[in-house]
Amino acid sequence: MSWRENGGIPPELGELFDELRSVQPPPELRERILSATVHRRRKLIRLGLIAAFAAFIGIGASLLTLNPFRERRLSEREARMLIEALSQPVEIIEGGSTMFIESIISSLETSEGGVRI
Amino acid sequence: MGGIDEREFIGIVEDLYGSIYRMALSVLGDEGEACDVTQESFEKLWRERRRVEAKAAAAWLRRTALNLCFDVLRRRSRESVSEEGEPEPIDPRPDPLEGSLREERVRLLREALGRLPIRYRVAVVLKDIEGLSYEEMSELLGRPVNTLKSDVFRGRRMLRKLLEPYLG
Description:
The complex is a heterodimer.
Chain A: H1 3-6, H2 11-21, H3 27-36, H4 38-66, H5 70-86, H6 98-110
Helix pairs in contact in A: 3-4
Chain B: H1 6-28, H2 31-47, H3 57-75, H4 101-114, H5 118-129, H6 134-141, H7 145-167
């Protein structure tokens, strides 16, 4: 039975089809596909992690250098020392101006957070 | 739970990129465009990976690549052969500077395929180069099996006529 009768491929065309089937894609095509898909996603994840890490480091460094709580801690400590001094017997500050002490107390009372005496 | 994970996707690329490239090359006849279509098909699969089953990936890729090929063909300003017309024979004389005999034969076949009307070209490529069954082709192209059988037969006959001087 000929190829015409059985609906098959003419033999000479079959050989050509075999040769076309053995054509290899360019070697860089696989890498191009992976770069545009899987590797791109990995790169984006890596970039995201680096950005998050950089932000974390940045915030940490700015907290250490600017230290916004440092000043508050210092004023609290000074205030505590003053309060301790003021709670000493009156003789210690004999000769001092009671007006001066009163002004200190009033300024402490109006300062941020207030101070309990 | 459907979807394709990263490892499965890499496996699909390894298994199918050659086949998708060859199909696109056979339909389009241009290596650069075949590369672009192959890459775009896999990029689309990557974007749709959560909705596509791994076992359906091959058919999905073929369908997407074929649609992209049709887009490319539509963009081309002119077809060398109309649907009804009879193609003219191609030049069988190999160019000695164009590489090996095998490469020359492949070039002739690609050129001949490029001169077939699109429907016959696609039918021959899917049947004779991709090795799909008529049922798979019918599912892929949405055409009845008997129509596809007729397209393949006519496509082969035209190819043979085109390559006659060379094959003779």
